[in-house]
Amino acid sequence: MNLNIYALITVFGLLLSSPVHAIKSIFGGKASGEWIATEGKDLSGQNVFWLDAWYDPPAAGISSFQFELKYDASRWALDLDRSGLLCSFASGGGCPPVSDTTGTFPFLSRLSPQISVGSPLLGSVFNIHNDTEFGLVKVNYNMVEPLPSDAGNQNFLQLSFRPLFSLDPSSAYVTTYSGAESTSSYDFEQIGLSCNIECGSPKPFTGVTVTQVPEPDSVMLALVGLFFMFGFGRKFTTEYR
Question: Looking at the predicted structure, is the pLDDT value of residue 16 above 50?
Answer without folding.
Answer: no
